[in-house]
Amino acid sequence: MKSTLKTIMFSTFYILMCGGALAQAVHESTKQPIGLLVFAMVMTPIIVSICGGLPVDFMKVNFNNARDN
To answer: Tens-of-pLDDT digits for all 69 residues of the chain?
Structure first.
């Protein structure tokens, strides 16, 4: 329960932060590289997860566990 709440809070705050950054970038007077900003927002949690110890082929492990059951 505690880890689920932590995950939900982190996800919510991250999405709000990304939305705020996008809104700020759209309202700037100079052109901003929105595509690069979105790419960085998507890749940041993935890179942090991999560097934090999540195996790169984590989907394969989940698929094998579901298939064995």
So the answer is: 677 787 788 888 888 888 888 888 888 877 778 888 888 888 888 777 777 776 666 566 555 555 555
| pTM for the full predicted model | 0.54
Tokens of 39: 């790419």
Residues 45 and 14 sit within 8 Å (Cβ to Cβ): yes
Is residue 25 within 8 Å of 32, Cβ to Cβ?
yes
Q: Within 13 A of 3's CA, how many CA atoms are on the CB side?
A: 0
Asked whether 34 and 25 are in contact (CB, 8 A), the reply is: yes
In angstroms, the CA 30 to CA 43 distance is 25
- End-to-end CA, the chain: 24
Furthest-apart CA atoms within the chain: distance in Å: 56
